[in-house]
Amino acid sequence: MPRILQRIWEIARKKALLAAAVWTLCAAAVAAAAVTPNDTPWRIAVHEAAVITGDTVTLGEIAQPMGPMPDALWQKLSATELWPSPEADGRSMGVNRDKLEQALEHYLGDTAQLCLLPDRLVLRRGGTLVQQDELASLVVKTLTPRARALGGEVAFRDYRLPDKIFLKDSTDTLVVVPDDEKIQPGRVSFWFEERDLRGETVRKISASVFLDCFKDVMVAAEPVNRNTPLTPDMVTTRRINAAFLKGEPWDGMGGPWRVTRPVGENQPLYKDDLESLPLVRRGEAVELVFEGKFVTLRTMAQALDDAGPGEPVRVRNMQSQQEVYARVRDAHTVVVR
C-alpha cells in the first residue's frame, strides 16, 4: 500500500511540473509579444498624478494595465523600479512627456512602447491623492441634501474643480464647505478644506459648481400691462430653471394684486412685480367725509392717487377744487378728521 501511495505522489508531481512548464512558456510568449504593439491586446496607462510610498518609484505606483494583460505579468512589471522618489517635504515632482518617455525606455526597454503617456506626470512622496472625479463625487454628496431643500428637480453641472488634490498626510480628510449656509440655484461657490486628525484646517482650496433647480413657477398666461389687476385667467404655471430667475417668484398666494410693470406671455411673475390692488384708484369719484367733534360733513371728491385700505390719499374737493389728504375707509369713502 505505501508503494501505491508513493507512485500516485510521483505522478501528481510530474503533472504539476508539466503545468508549471506550460505556464512559464505561456508567460514567456506573452512577454515576447509585449514588445510588438500591433500584436499586443493590452497597454500600460501612466497616470497624470501619483503618490509614492518608498524611496524608489515603481511602475505599479504610476500606472495601471489596460486590456487583457495576464495578472502574473502585471505583478512582475508593476514591481519594476524606476527612478528615485521625490523628497518627503511635501513638494511635488513634475515630469513632462518627453522625459517620461526617455525614462521608461531606459527602465522598461521595449515594453515602453506599450505605455500610454500623459502630457505631464506629477509625483509626491507620501500623503493621499484625490482625483477630480472623486472631488466631484464629494461635492454632490455634500451639497445634494441642501439642494433638495429648494424643492423641484436639482442637478449639478459645470464643475470648476482642481484636477487633483494632494493631501499632505494620509490621515487627513477633505470636506466641502459652502460659502453660504443656504445654497441657491446658480453658481455655488465653496471650499475644499483639508483637515487633520484634530479637525483643524490645514489648507483651503476654492472651487464652484452650477446648480440647476427646475420647478413650477407662476407665469403670465398672456401679456399683462402695468397697473392691470391680476385675475386667475391671466396666470398659469411653467417649468423653469430657478437658476435663471431674476428675483423671488410669486407663490400664487394673497391678493388681490395688480402688476407694477408690463409682463410678457410665459414670463415669470415675481413678488416685486405685484402690489395690493388699491381700494381707491386715481381718477375715481369718492365720498369725502369731514368728521369733526360735533359735526360731520360729506361731499364728493376725486382721488388723485391710488391707495389701499387705511392709507392716506390725495383728493380734490369737487365743489371747492381744494386738494386735501384723507385716509381710505373703503372703496368709496375717504375721511378727514
Automatic annotation (TrEMBL):
Gene3D superfamilies linked to this entry: 2.30.30.760
Entry-linked InterPro entries: Flagellar_FlgA (IPR039246), SAF (IPR013974), SAF_FlgA (IPR017585)
Top-level taxon of the source organism: Bacteria
One GO CC annotation: periplasmic space
Name this protein carries in UniProt: Flagella basal body P-ring formation protein FlgA
All residue ranges annotated as the SAF domain in the record: 215-275
Localization per record: Periplasm
Pfam families: ChapFlgA
UniProt keyword annotations, A-Z: Cell projection, Cilium, Flagellum, Periplasm, Signal
